[in-house]
TrEMBL record:
PANTHER family: 5-OXOPROLINASE SUBUNIT B (PTHR34698). Keywords: ATP-binding, Hydrolase, Nucleotide-binding. It comes from the Bacteria. One of its GO terms (molecular function) is hydrolase activity. This is Allophanate hydrolase subunit 1. It comes from Pseudomonas aestuarii. Residues 7-208 form the Carboxyltransferase domain.
Length: 237
């Protein structure tokens, strides 16, 4: 069994620490990230203000009225002393219906040109893989997922769009994501999903959470509209 990661401390503020657990982005990181998150929440209890997992780090924000900086570091050290990776057998799996089409996925031709694959093959490969949710950030409900296979990896657009429609599915490098709401963005768009990713009525507000797995399910335009999708074209300004 792999050895537990030893966190490296990086000061993020007077009451915040970044715990760097890994140096590279790997799906195998997630069981350790989930285990560390659970252990730290239990260790800090009421002294914990927030704990934000990412690809390789945990941002830990604690209450200085409850514990000192030295006590916080001691709690972290104790939490990692005999850490074991968490089981992902019970992780939630989501199927996100997605309409792949140039009208809402204008970078489909670009990805085909860069990869030497047909647009149909781009769609088949993107939708044929289960993606790990690594982190939630950028916008409420925005889940950073990966890893996209190397053939589909594409840099962000050199000039981000000012307005991305909700549900837009995109790729940036080896990451994929769905924009939960209207926002600017520079990811390469492949299609659009009618799924509601940010909802104030669900626990945590976000449909997707770190540790979940996601598969994109291709649907046609009629099904997209039936499920409540908005096929309005992207704004060009």
């Amino acid at each position: 069994m792999a050895r537990a990661p030893r966190p490296r401390f990086e000061v993020a503020g007077i009451d915040s620490l970044i715990l760097r657990l890994f140096d590279s982005i790997e799906e195998s990181n997630m069981p350790w990230m989930l285990a560390a998150t659970e252990r730290l929440r239990a260790s800090f209890g009421a002294a914990l203000i927030d704990l934000v997992p990412s690809y390789t780090t945990l941002l830990l924000h604690y209450d200085l009225e409850h514990i000192s900086a030295s006590q916080a570091r001691e709690l972290i050290t104790q939490a990692f002393a005999d850490l074991q990776p968490a089981s992902t057998a019970g992780s939630r799996c989501h199927s996100l219906p997605t309409w792949y089409d140039r009208r809402v996925g204008p970078e489909l031709p670009l990805l085909a040109q860069r990869s030497g694959l047909s647009e149909a093959e781009i769609i088949r490969r993107h939708s044929g893989h289960d993606y790990q949710v690594f982190a939630i950030g950028f916008a409420p409900g925005f889940a950073f997922m990966g890893l996209v296979e190397e053939a589909l990896a594409t840099p962000r657009l050199s000039t981000p769009r000012k307005r991305i429609a909700p549900g837009s599915v995109g790729i940036a490098e080896r990451q994929t994501a769905v924009y939960p709401g209207v926002s600017p963005g520079g990811w390469n768009l492949l299609g659009r999903s009618p799924a509601k990713l940010f909802d104030r009525n669900i626990d945590g507000y976000s449909l997707l959470q770190p540790g979940d797995r996601v598969r994109f399910e291709p649907i046609d335009h009629a099904e997209f509209i039936r499920l409540g999708g908005d096929d309005s074209p992207l704004e060009t300004v």
